[in-house]
């Protein structure tokens, strides 16, 4: 394997992107390519596809909230809480506008999602608005002195890259290591699974494209599963 200077995960993402481009060229443009051109047969970095299972432990959640409350962006702590309650991806939460929120019907209308980029989806992706996430949005509205512009973003935290960099630096200051903002999606999915044992229902809430994708993010507490089984057999 040639050293690229990039993280293993980044190499895999770029290989997958190349594979998608090649498949599109073959199927849509009738361009003939030898099978050797497919990125799928290129040797992938060892360990790059390892399933990440990082979840919050102990008082880490409280430490993260405290850390993000110390930044120059008041919405930093709110978007962290929202991500935990709703299970959105970083980009989805940051792109959310007030016109995308239906408080009466408890629905979110997401305009730009990963599913929409990888599949031919017509119209926005609709997801149920979770009670905890709704409370955060109402809290956000209560902070305002006027009705927000419907086209305005709900959370203002700067660019995606600057936010991620700030998130990583801040939580390390408070003793939380080896955690990315995207790991919160693992945490959220695992918490929501307790409320929605039907994986098809859970998939509708988290926005995972299929059950295989959902499985990568569902990281249950195995001791909790054992305890539940013990209670049912008593």
UniProtKB/TrEMBL annotation:
Residues 51-232 form the Tyr recombinase domain. PROSITE patterns: TYR_RECOMBINASE. Keywords: DNA integration, DNA recombination. InterPro entries: DNA_brk_join_enz, Integrase-like_cat_sf, Integrase_catalytic, Tyrosine_recombinase_XerCD. GO terms for molecular function: DNA binding. GO terms for biological process: DNA integration; DNA recombination. PANTHER family: INTEGRASE_RECOMBINASE HI_1414-RELATED, PHAGE INTEGRASE-RELATED. This is Tyr recombinase domain-containing protein. It comes from Novacetimonas maltaceti.
């Amino acid at each position: 394997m040639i050293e690229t200077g990039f993280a293993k995960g980044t190499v895999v993402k770029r290989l997958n992107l190349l594979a998608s481009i090649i498949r599109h060229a073959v199927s849509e443009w009738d361009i003939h390519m030898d099978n050797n051109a497919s990125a799928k047969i290129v040797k992938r970095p060892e360990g790059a596809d390892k399933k990440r299972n990082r979840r919050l432990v102990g008082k880490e959640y409280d430490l993260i909230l405290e850390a993000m409350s110390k930044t120059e962006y008041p919405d930093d702590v709110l978007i962290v809480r929202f991500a935990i309650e709703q299970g959105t991806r970083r980009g989805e939460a940051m792109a959310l506008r007030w016109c995308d929120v239906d408080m009466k019907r408890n629905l979110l209308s997401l305009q730009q999602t990963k599913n929409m980029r990888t599949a031919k989806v017509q119209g926005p992706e609709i997801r149920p608005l979770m009670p905890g996430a709704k409370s955060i949005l109402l809290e956000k509205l209560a902070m305002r002195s006027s009705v927000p512009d419907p086209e305005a973003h709900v959370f203002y935290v700067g660019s995606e890259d600057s936010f991620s960099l700030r998130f990583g630096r801040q939580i390390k200051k408070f003793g939380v290591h080896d955690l990315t903002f995207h790991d919160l999606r693992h945490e959220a999915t695992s918490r929501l699974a307790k409320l929605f044992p039907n994986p098809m229902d859970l998939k509708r809430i988290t926005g995972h494209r299929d059950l295989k994708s959902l499985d990568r993010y569902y990281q249950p507490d195995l001791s909790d599963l054992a305890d539940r089984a013990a209670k049912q057999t008593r």
